[in-house]
Every structure is written in C-alpha cells, then in structure tokens.
Queue: 2 jobs
Job 1
Amino acid sequence: MSEQIPGNDLLVVDRIETFIGQFHILENVSVCVPKGSITVMLGRNGAGKTTTLKSIIGLTPPREGKIIFDGMEIQGKQAFNIANLGIGYVPENRAIFRALSVQENLKLAERKKGDFERKSDFIFELFPDLKRLYKLPGNHLSGGQQQMLAVARALVPENKLLLIDEPSEGLAPILIQQMMEAIRKLSETTTILLVEQNFIMASQLAERYTIIDDGKTVQEGLMKDLIEDTDLIHHYLGASIKTRKELEMEHESEN
Amino acid sequence: MNPKTKKLLIGILIAGLLVAAVAGVYAYAGQRAFISTLFSGLTLGSLFFMVAAGLTLIFGLMDVLNFAHGSMFMLGAYIGWQFYTNPTFIFGMAPFLLAFGAGVMVTPIIKPYLIALNISEKLQKALPKIAYVLALAALVFAFVGFDILSVANTAMVAATTTTVGNPLAELSAQEPLSTFWLRPFLMFVSGLLIAVASSRPGDKTQFAPREPIGKKLLMPAALLVLTALSTLVRESASESVLLMNGNLRFALSILLSVAFGFVFGAVIEITLIRPLYVRPTFILLMTLGLSYVIRELVQYLWDPLTYQMSRPPLFAQPGKASSIAEWLQKGSSTIDIYGATVPTYRLFIIALGIAMFILVIFVMTKTRLGMIIRAGVQDPQMVEAMGINVKAVFTVVFAMGVALAALGGIGAAPFLPVQPLMGDTYQTQGLITVVIGGMGSYIGAFVGAMILGMARAFGDYFALKLSLSPAIAEASTVIIMVIVLLTRPQGLFGKKE
Ligand SMILES: Nc1ncnc2c1ncn2[C@@H]1O[C@H](COP(=O)(O)OP(=O)(O)OP(=O)(O)O)[C@@H](O)[C@H]1O
Ligand SMILES: [Mg+2]
C-alpha cells in the first residue's frame, strides 16, 4: 500500500482471514509494523482490532494469510510458542489474574528465571503505584491499577514486540497522561502495535496507523498524513468527531 | 445489618451448634467411644480427601469431572498391593512398559528434524497413519506367545494361598533371555513409531526449536537403562523385593503407585482427554466408560475376587501400645489414646491425608506451577499468551490428580478389602466432598472430606447404638450436601460465579 521499507518490518500481517466458530470475523487484514516504531490500529467498535491482535499472538489463529514476525512465518503456531519468540500481549479489559497478587502476576510473566528482578526497577519507575500495591491480590486493585499491571506484566520478559489493546480504556485523564508517558518510554526499546480509541493519544504516540473496518484493512500510512485528512477520519472513525474538535482546539492553543 | 456482621453471627451460630453437638455426643457416648469414633471419622475423612483432592484439582483447572477417579484409586491399590505382596506381575511387565516409554520419549529429540523434512502433503497425511499401524503391529508382536494371564495369575495364586513359605515357589520358569529380549525390543520400536507418528513429519505449522539435545537425551536413556536392568532381573527381582524389610517394601509400594498414577494419568490425558476438550460432555462419558474398562481389565487380570493386603510390620504386631514411642518401637497394631483403642494404621492414614493436604497447599501457593494453575483457572488463554504451554500444564495437573488418587488407593489397601469395586464408594463420596467444599477449592475439599468422614463415623455409631439402619450414615452425607447446596450453592469455600 503506502510507503514501506522492505526488510525493516518487524511484523507483517499479510491478508489474514480469521474465523471464530463459523463467524468470518477478519476478511482481509494487513498490518505492517516497522522496527522501532509505534503503529496504531484504529477502527470502530467491533471492527476486528482485538481479533487481529489475537490472531497475531495465536489465540484465534488465522485460516488464511501470513503473519511474519522477525523474518519467520508464525501463523498457525501455538500461542505459547509465538509469545516465546518475543511478543508481549496486553489484552483489553484489564485481564490480569485476579486470584494472584501483584507480585505473582509479575512473576508469572517471567520467561527466564530472574526476568522480573532484572526489570523491576524499570517497571516500578514507569508505574510507581505498583510498588506500593506489590502484595495485594489482583482483585483488590482499582481499574486503573489493573490496567497498569496488565502493561507491566508484558514488560517482565525481553520482548521485541508489544501488542497493547486499548491501554487508556476507562482511565482518568491524569492516568492517561501517565500511560502515554509509559508507552512512549517503552517505544525507545521495543516496537509497539497499539490499539487505541482515544484519537488524541493515538495521534500523539504513533508514527504509523492502520484503519480496520468490518474485518478489512481499509487504509494505512503515516500518522501525520492522517491528522490532515479530516474526511478519512470522519468516514471510518465516525465516533471520533469530538476528538477532532478537541484536536483543533489543541492546535489553536499550540499556535 | 451489614453482610459482615451477618456472616459473623452465622459463623458464631454454627460454631456454637457444633460445640453443643460435640459436647452432647461426648456426654452421650462417653470418652472412649467418642474418641474411637472420632478417629474413624478422621480416617474416613483422610481417605475422602485423597480422592477429592485430585478431583477438585482437575475440575478447577480443566473443567473435567473425572468419573474414572474411583477406578484410578482402585488401580493404585492393586499396583501397590501387587508390589507389596508378590511383585512378579510388576516385574514381568516392567521391561515392556519401560521399553515402550523409552521409545516414546525420543519424540522431542527427533521432532525438530522430522518437521523440517520436505515431503509432499499426501505423504504428510499418510505417514503418521502408517506409523501408528506399524506401532500397533509391533506392540502385538511383542506380546505374541507371552502368557500375561499366567504372570498375573501366579501372582494372584501366590498372594491368596501362601501366608507361609515362599510365595514364589509355584512360579513357572520364565522364557530364556535369548528369546525374551525381542519383546522389549519390539516395544521400543513401537514407542519409536509412535514418536514418529505424533511428530507429524513435514508439518511445518508445528514449532520445535533445535535446542541442544543433551537434556532431552536423559529421559529415554534412563528408561533404556532401566529396561535393560528390568529385563535381566525380571525373575530374581521379585524374590529380593520380598526379602526386603516389610516397611521399606511398603514405602516402595507407595512410591510405585504414585509414579504409576502419574504416568497413567499423563497418558490418559494426552491420548483420550486432549482430543475431546472441544466437546466437554464427551469427556464426561469417556471417563465414565474408562472406569468400566479399568475395572474389567483388573477383573480379567486378577479375577473378580477380594484380597486382603497384610499390613506392613510397623502396624502388624498384636498388642496395644500405650504411647507413640512404644508403637514405633514394637510395631503394635493398636494404640491407646485416652482410653480408646485405635488401630495404628488409622493414624498412618490420617497422617498421610494431612501430609497430602499440606503438600497440595504448598504446591498451589508456593510454586510456579501452583501460580500457573491458579491463573489458568481464571483465564487459560492469557496464560498461554504469556508463553506458557497450558496444554502441558493440563497434562501435569491431570497426572498429579491421578497420582493423588493412586496414593489414596495404596494408602487404603491394607485397610480396605482390595477388590475391583473398592473405589466406587470413594468416587461418590469424593464427588459429594467436592460439591460441599466448593468445586475447585482444595481447602474446601479438606474441610468437606472431614465433615463427611465425621458424619459417616458418627452416623454409623448411632445407627449401631440405636439399632437403626446403617443406611442412615450413608444418607447423612447426602443430606449434608443438600443442606449446603440450599444455603450456599457454590459450596463452603467455592467462589460465586
Ligand atoms: N467469541 C466470539 N464469537 C463470535 N463473534 C465474536 C467473538 N469475539 C468477537 N466477535 C465479533 O468479532 C467482531 C470483532 O471483534 P473485536 O473484539 O475484534 O472488535 P474490536 O475492533 O476490538 O472492537 P472494540 O473496539 O469494541 O474492542 C465483532 O463483531 C464481534 O462481535
Ligand atoms: Mg477490542
């Protein structure tokens, strides 16, 4: 589609089709994630963003198409094998393990012994709250704290790629800021594929975007182009009209 | 009233009723009867727990209700009893099973190479089938002319008829090594073919990194050594085992039963349950059917008879010890506890139950496996997405559950008649225990088991005393279950869905 530098993509999702039961959920999804960047996936509710991430990690394996990670075809492989190649997954809806303490949630994410010890300083610097909540069981955390734990968990092992599904969902504005900072900091060392409904957040973080609509990739390109293209935003991300206004206001205040 | 004070009040009320009931029974029955009934209750409770622990572990993680659990309990008892009384059968079968296992264990070594093969799709489909058929053929050939029944029967005859003299005296001489070696060899080949088939050669969607094979070599190599060893000593070993100190032999029987249960469980999970996860009702029916298969197999090998396993020496000398020290020294069969005469073997079963409970708690709360299990109960997909092989964890958990059942079986064997139906009561009571305690809760399983054990023991006591039908004791457990289900449908320690 648009400008791609071949050989520089850490992840290439190539025309995948995914079924859940007999439902044809993804009909033709392609995503490119260049190394060292943040790529955001946009689309309405039910467009198939979460399913795309799950197809990549192998929880809903695609029936057709290819997924190439780090030069290797991974479609059809088992999820744990895919994860162990160096892909971290932060699911939507804060799916942390409620019966486990914060500490155990983080320990469980280890792939090698000592992963957590190596990374703990980094993690607690990004999310200082977690240090205080260390011993609490997961079901005692607030929604925002669970979201942070879900992200932190993906940082424990060495990952080349992070798949993050709506990290800002249900967070207070101040926490959204903190989450954005965290993700920006992460992107210095890790490639990120982000699903984000909050257009402000998405547009400030990502260099590239992919729009998915009704199970198909309809557009991809550079974020700076998308911000200019109000029609496109309007057409596919109808829900974010308000977001656009906010954007304009922001532009005004910046000028 | 806020729910917390309400809970507290209900708790106090129940505790009060319990204390009153205990005091009442104590006053009515008198100290001696009370204590000896108490110990019967604890013994039964321990046995119920041994069955319920595995059931609840398996159900909690995998949503599999294992109706073959009672049969696995029985099988554990048979294996341990055989080893303790007359290990001919065990040693006769060992070369076959070990050789087969060694073959299968080659899988992780050859799999990466087989996957990498470039073969046509047709051949990819056909090859595993051919390998399976050949494996079956090798398996059949390995047993041709081998009289498995006579191996089992000599053991049986010896076990029933000879309390004096050498139980091995009647054994017919076995096949010479010069021809016998072919049998384990064929079993090894059969295992290898299974390894080839299950690797699905050429199927590149599988993933098996070519790691250094050092570690993977250990298992098949160890099994091969054991095969060779067990082939050489298949006749003499029985005798030396029987010459062993009885307590040591019993300890080995327990280890063997547990190991057998673990391997058996793993094999059942991989071959029969795994293909059915997409159809949970079929799993239920399959385990039910499996319980019949196991029972029939046992009846075929050892006839539908009832055996009495003798107690190990530590619990066998006639006489009553006045203290634990005296019992351990003399090996008395009973012990005096506050005036009541309690069989010492019961203390062993109670201790075994408590040890198992502590072990389960330790594994669940302190180990990585326990962490994975607790996380997997909630969200196995997410556990998988974190890079953990959940399928393998399922196998391990099922294997552990069956190992617990087998441990219960061998623990109970010197105490219960060893017969093909011995697990059935425990299956039922185990299920009731799990329902009372709360599906998936191991603490609930322990508390539930103790409640049921007490209900049974005191029910029996009163039925006898008041000349009521003994069915009352049996009914009492069901009544307790109904009461619990009506007041707390999720069980005493179950979490609300
Ligand atoms: N288990 C399932 N069974 C049937 N349909 C499903 C299932 N999971 C998802 N779907 C359908 O697949 C489509 C895509 O779902 P998906 O969760 O990928 O959307 P999404 O883009 O992440 O939406 P949102 O922004 O609301 O999170 C939806 O129409 C949804 O109803
Ligand atoms: Mg979604």
Job 2
Amino acid sequence: MIFALKLIFKNAFRHKTRTLLTISSVVIALVAFGLLRTVVSAWYAGVAASSATRLVTRNSISLTFPLPLAYKDKIKQVKGVTVVSWGSWFGGIYINEKNFFANFAVDPGSYLKLYPEYVITPEQKTAFLNDRRGAVAGIKLAQRFGWKTGDLVTLKGTIYPVDLDFVIRAIYKGRDKNTDESQFFFNWDYLNESIKKVSPGRADQAGFFIEGISDPLLAPSISAEIDSLFKNSLAETITETEKSFQLSFISMTEALLMVIQLVSFVIIAIIMAVAANTMSMTVRERIGEYAVLKTLGFGSFRIAGLIAGESMVIVMTGCALGIALTYPAAHAFRDQLGDYFPVFNVDGRLFIFYAAASALVGLVAAIFPAWRAIRTPIAEGLRRIG
Amino acid sequence: MESKEPIVQIRDLSKSYRRGSQQIKVLEDISFEIAEGEFLALMGPSGSGKTTLLNLIAGIDKSDKGGIVVGGVQITSLSENELARWRALNVGFIFQFYNLIPVLTAIENVELPLLLTGLSKSERTEHAMAVLDLVGLSDRTEHYPGQLSGGQQQRVAIARAIVTDPVILVADEPTGDLDRVSAQEVLSMMENLNTQLGKTVIMVTHDPRAASTAHIVRTLEKGILT
Ligand SMILES: Nc1ncnc2c1ncn2[C@@H]1O[C@H](COP(=O)(O)OP(=O)(O)O)[C@@H](O)[C@H]1O
Ligand SMILES: [Mg+2]
C-alpha cells in the first residue's frame, strides 16, 4: 500500500510542468467558482437579512413615485401595525460618483425602533436624535472614508436639487453577520425642509413607509388592509413584506444571476476536461509501462487504482490549494468591489462542494484512460517501447 | 533428462494478426517441446514471429488455435485474471529495452513483482537485496534507471525476473541494445542462472554470439520452426 502510494505520487509529479499546469487550472477554476457563488449569495444577503415582521409600502406605479406623508396616520390605525416609519431615497453623491453608497432620509425615532440590528451606543443615539443635521453611518462605510463622530459630510443631491451638510452623530455595527454595515441615513425632516425652500411642490412626500407588525402571520391581511385604504386615490399603494420587497430588486437581475450560476457549473465541467486530458496524455505515454506491470502479473484492479490514484492526487492537490486561496481571493475581491456588495462572506460549506466536485473530477478523469490501459493487449503495449 | 516431463509443450499452435481486411499468418501449426533446465535460443529473421511465439509461451498473448502447457498447466485455457496470477508466480521476463519503471529505484523495481505475493516489507527488501547481490549490483540499489548504464539496467531487469523464483525465464533480445562487453556479462549471467540455479531459459535473439551460449538453437522462418 505504501509502495503503491509512493509510485502514485512519483508518477503524478513526473511531468512537473504538465502537472503544475493542471493543478493551477483546478485551483483557478475552484477559486473562480467560489467567488461567483459568493457573489450570488452576497446578492441575496439583503433578502436573508430582511425581517419577517416588517412590511414596506410603496407607490403602486413604481418606487420612484412618492406617497403623501399624511398616509402615515391612516396606516397607524390598522390593527396589528405597531410602528410606522417612513423614508426617502436621497441618492446623494459624496465628493464624486465613484464613492457610491446607499443614503436615505428616515424618520429617526421610528426607524431605529424598527431596525434593532443596527447597534448604536445610547450616547450616540441621543446625539443623533437631538441633531436635525445628524447622520448615522455603518461602521464599514465610516472605515472606508475614515469618518468619526463629529465629522462634517456633504452629499450632493441628484434626485432632489439640494446639497445637504451633515454631522456624523452615530456609527452603527451590525448585530448579525449578514447585516449591511455600509448604510447612511439621516433625519427626514431636514431633507423635507430643504426641499420646501427650493421646490415646495415636492415637499411632504415619502418614498416609502415601513411598518412594524406584531405577528408575521398577519402580514398578508395587514398588507391587503393598508392597500385597500388608498384604493382609488391618486396614489395607490403596494404593501409587501420586506423580503419580497428586497426580492423585487433582485428579480431585475435574476437573469444575470442565472448566468453566473450557469458559468460556475461550466467551470467545473472545464476542469473535468482539463484533468481528463492530462490523464489521457499521461496514460498514452505510459501504455508500455502499464503493459510491463501487467506482464509482471498486476491485474486490472491495480492498474486502474494507480491511474485513478494519480488523477486524485493531482486534482486533490488543486482542491487543497483552492481552499487555501479562496479566502485571500475573497478579501482582495472585497477590497476592490466591496462597495457594491456590502455583505461579502465566504460560506464555509463551499469547501464541501470543492471536495466533492474535485473527487468527482478526479474519478471521472481517470475512467477513460484507465479503461484504455486495461484494455490494451500486453503484447501491443510492449511493442510501443523502444 | 529424457525421463523428465517437458516443461513446455506446444501443440499445433497458430496465430495470425488482422491488419485491416488482411489476415497475416504469423505462426502456423507449430509443435515443439522444451525440456526442464534447458537453455534454448530462438533465432530467425526480423518479423518471423519470434516475439509472438515467446509471448504466447509466457502467457501475455492469446493464440488462435493450439495448446500450450507450461509446468503442467494448460495456459491456453486460463482466464485473463488466472493468467496474470500464473505469470506472477511462474515466469520471469527480460526485455530488449529493460523496461524498468523510471520513477522507481533499482531495489524498488526488483521489489515490484513481490508486491503480488504475501511477503512483508522486510522480507521483500531481503529478497530484492539478495538478487541484486547475485547480479553484482548491491552498491547500486538506490539508483534510478536513468542513473545506470544499459548493462546495469539489464542486470536490474534480470534481478527483477528471478526475484519470484519463477519456473521459466523468457528473454526477448536481451542483448539487442547492449555493447559487446555488457552483452557478454548479461549472457554469462543467464548461463549461470541456467546451470547453477537450474532455470529453464528461452531466449529470442538474432545475434549468433548470443545464440552460441544456448544449448539448443531453433530457427523460425515464415511461421515455421526448423
Ligand atoms: N499487434 C499486431 N498487429 C498486427 N501485426 C502484428 C502485431 N504484432 C506483430 N505483428 C506482425 O507479426 C509478425 C511477427 O512479429 P514478431 O513476432 O514481432 O516478429 P519478430 O519478433 O520475429 O521480429 C510481423 O509481421 C508483425 O508485423
Ligand atoms: Mg521481436
């Protein structure tokens, strides 16, 4: 057994360049696969983090159409609704467009009540609630721009014709692993008053309402009741759970995600082809040697074992290196593109898939070459030497 | 010697190869016997079927017709697996191009056939050392084939062929790739195996000097043995 393993390892590294190239392609493919899968789950992270006890109400035409602020009082009357908050997407630019991040105006008190996953110290919370120009930034965002509490930040308006100056009053941390730590939000009243000065017609309008509900099971009936309140009004509403609200964002890119998923599996097929090609070349070159082993009395089982073992050694070495390199690769990826993926965590379960896929690739790559080595008559194999 | 049962008995052996639609007859109704302890040289022009006949006797090729009995076993009726096991125990092979495994050291190459026996690691090493000593290579055990001369490689191959103590030794042009001095060494080694250890040796060659080492010379021409 030890002897056989020694032979397998020596054989695997006989053609160093070829073996290293094969291992590299396995490594690159697995890491690419891992990054693509991580991108897909990063995309869904907002959905995973969404709460079942929050509903979102928006204009039935589209998210870009606002709703009268007065709706909040009617919504509050609905049975089962515990808290109502509201907000508007501000879409402001910090210095230049490359510094993209999500920023919106919210009703501070109700909003923080609805989002306990944004963890803020009591002092900072008080400071934020007491400053009309106060803003809250997620810790990742603050680190990205080196913000501290007390810093002044100006956002240029894009949707609204106003530039707003803020004082960072609080920096929140995520309570859960998939909490987005790169949000920026501020006092809705501040935005509203600024708009009033330049375009009064657009004031007192909310982009969306968020409702806290007492029981997730009541979500469908509460949603229906809220929407019925505004039926046949100038601005009809759609109310849905936060989860389906998040999913409606994703569905726009569903086709893209499908393509990524597909590509990730094509990658596995490609390494299978690469490994199979390496093993066929190897076995073709050594057909004489296998004939010698058969002459000495080695049976089909042992010959197949040597070939499958060699294939496994090569692919599994690639798998181990792939596992080792996925974290550094994900870090580099996050450093470059983390702004677009606030939550970008490598799922450890990915490596179970690496191992399973590699084992399958190693085995499949060996089938045809092993079959060929076994089926070639000894006399014919021996004639290939010399 | 006459009283002994022949170690190899061949009856009406025929073999042909198909090349496309053409049927090429290589051996035609060959019958002969080899006595135990014999040293036989098989000569003949290139392409006359010497290798084919040797392979059939050694159980690494299948005949179309006829019977081969080696050491009392009708090898023509064995299955592929039975034949493999039979070869491991009964036949030692020496090839023109040595056919050592390049990634294994001399001693590992010699150990190779012993993996199919029930011997322990230390017993295998002991046996391999003993035969390497016999061929005069006890100081080259850790060398790889690429680090040995042709003559030395062929001596390792001889050690590998005899390590399982087989009944017959088959050699296909064992000196064909060697210089005169090395060839002479290999031939005298094979002669010693025959005279001192009593091994039956069947050697294909077209070198008359090699053939002169043997006790009996048979010639194959156009598929017919004379
Ligand atoms: N696998 C094969 N397929 C077709 N023809 C073969 C094959 N093996 C041997 N032959 C033919 O059989 C004949 C005898 O070959 P061989 O036994 O190798 O001769 P020798 O060893 O005397 O040179 C040659 O004509 C050779 O071309
Ligand atoms: Mg020949």
